[in-house]
Amino acid sequence: MRSSSIMLSSAAMLCAACASSSRAPSSAPAASPSPTPANGPTVGAPEIARTVNLETRDGRLLVAGVEIHQSTDTFRGSEVGAPAAKLWATLPAVYDQLGLPINGVDAEKRAVAAVNLRARVQLNKVRLSRYVDCGGAGSIGGRAADSYTVTFNVATQVVPLTDDRATVATLVQAFGQPSSNSGQPVHCTSTGNLEAQVAQLAAAHVAP
What we know:
Low-confidence stretches: 1-38
Strand content: 25-35%
Distance between the termini: 37 Å
Structural class: alpha+beta
Mean pLDDT: 74
Number of helices: 3
Order of helices and strands: HEEEEEHEEEEEEEEH
Radius of gyration: 16 Å
Shape: elongated
């Protein structure tokens, strides 16, 4: 087991993309996405997270048996003014709000993952180009991400910093396939918006 700025590989993702994902039950209440309230915990700007500590094996990130492979994608973390245990408890509801079905949970490491999630045009009513950049114009104009079928791997870990502060670190990996199904899937880079939204929603859930 070792600490790592986790990265994922496209070749392994392409092999795994055909696997089906199951939605884990969420006991936390769902809420409409909203910014952190003024009297809620502070949320720092996302930055490369160097404190993530998840098990790896042969270059693969393991979240409760779900394997994610390394590439050029990294965790981005936001420091939140709330205890790690409280933020961790919000993740099922946060992922549910964002349309991310959890299929990997590591309670000891306070980590969850949604792997092999396919979306087209939108993810839970949000245009894909808000979350990822798959390159230039798509088949119907605009950004390519908004016309491709995009396969996502998303993982989040809550890392305690002090008794009342923690980092909510999220990794987003995506691969886009043209709607014509011709051509090779392309690696899409994260815009950072999904990582920031995970932290903001977690903070909103623990607000008084």
